[in-house]
Design goal:
disordered N terminus, mainly alpha, 2 strands
């Protein structure tokens, strides 16, 4: 950070100087008073009717500054000057660490970005711990536990989020330490870069990504279970198309018998189509048999895919018709993806 200063100790002014020290620590002052803006200055000279009309206009954007900034503003109401000094020093240390590990502690731009990441990291930790509690409670937490503790909470949330799958296509590189570190750095920068003077939506974006990634993780877990219980033996391919595995399993389940198929080839697909066309099985009974074999924790994912494919799967729609096998296999490829063996076997 570029403007970390301890508050002046020689002054004995009526208003305590600690708030200024803490603002220097995050390089942010209180929001600009609307009365000081040019628009407000012009409004003071306008007719009373115009001023009244302007006063009735709703606010378009609610102020939502980072939680750290809002907590520091509460320092002005406290009577302990050392709290501001200690908080300023602690935030400066966090910023130096972030600059060294994630940005660049040799350039002004790197330090500035580290400053924003410090504000966001501490704020994310405060939001997670305190939720909808007051900004005064956030300040109490900082005084009692320290800004570094709040930052570590926020950073741990980002690290755990980065370890969840972002999509259902996985490969060997997803577990590579270099790739994992780069993914963590990118996610940390995306979620925790918080300008102290601007509205910040980091907690909302974190919560949305957490929900989305947990949904993907549930799909991946279900696909891995299906692979391990593939009718022809476990599949150990490190590359995984989780949605493709689910598609193969759900489509082949209409044949009935409860056989779990997680990967297939063209020859097996042709046998499957001929068998379905000949025996005309009950699709719903086949899906029920599949669900009965799957553990309870994976059943919601399979049930959701079954509901989707029941009305929106061209393979299932056309399998009972006279559609050419070549056309039907091309449709199947769109669902199975890389979980379809390339060889005719």
């Amino acid at each position: 950070m570029t403007a970390v200063k301890a508050p002046p100790k020689a002054r004995k002014a009526k208003a305590p100087p600690k708030a200024h020290a803490a603002d220097a620590a995050i390089d942010a002052t209180s929001a600009v008073n609307p009365a000081d803006s040019p628009a407000a200055t012009g409004a003071a000279d306008s007719p009373p009717a115009a001023s009244a009309a302007a006063a009735q206009l709703p606010a378009l954007v609610a102020e939502r500054l980072p939680r750290l900034v809002r907590a520091i503003r509460c320092l002005a109401a406290r009577g302990v000057e050392d709290e501001a000094v200690m908080l300023a020093d602690e935030l400066a240390g966090i910023t130096a660490m972030v600059a060294e590990k994630f940005t660049n502690d040799k350039t002004a731009d790197g330090i500035a970005r580290a400053h924003f990441l410090t504000v966001g990291g501490v704020s994310l930790g405060l939001e997670h711990v305190l939720g909808h509690e007051s900004d005064e409670a956030a300040l109490e937490f900082l005084v009692e536990h320290g800004a570094e503790h709040a930052f570590q909470i926020g950073f741990r949330l980002v690290r755990e989020l980065s370890q969840l799958p972002e999509d259902a296509l996985l490969g060997e590189y997803d577990n590579d330490p270099v790739y994992l570190q780069r993914r963590l750095k990118e996610l940390f920068s995306d979620l925790c870069s918080a300008d102290p003077g601007q509205n910040w939506s980091g907690p909302e974006r974190y919560a949305a990504q957490l929900v989305q990634r947990k949904q993907v993780q549930a799909v991946v877990f279900a696909a891995n279970w299906l692979r391990r219980h593939h009718h022809n033996g476990p599949i150990s391919d490190p590359d995984l198309n989780a949605e493709g595995v689910l598609a193969v399993a759900v489509i082949f389940a209409i044949e009935g018998g409860g056989r779990i198929v997680a990967r297939t080839g063209q020859k097996e697909f042709e046998r499957f189509v001929k068998g379905v066309r000949k025996s005309k099985p009950d699709f719903e009974a086949g899906w029920a048999q599949l669900l009965a074999k799957v553990p309870q924790q994976h059943q919601p994912v399979l049930a959701e895919r079954i509901a989707q494919y029941r009305t929106h799967c061209t393979v299932i729609e056309k399998i009972g018709s006279r559609t050419a096998m070549k056309t039907l296999f091309a449709e199947f490829e769109n669902y199975a993806g890389s979980e379809l063996d390339a060889d005719y076997s």
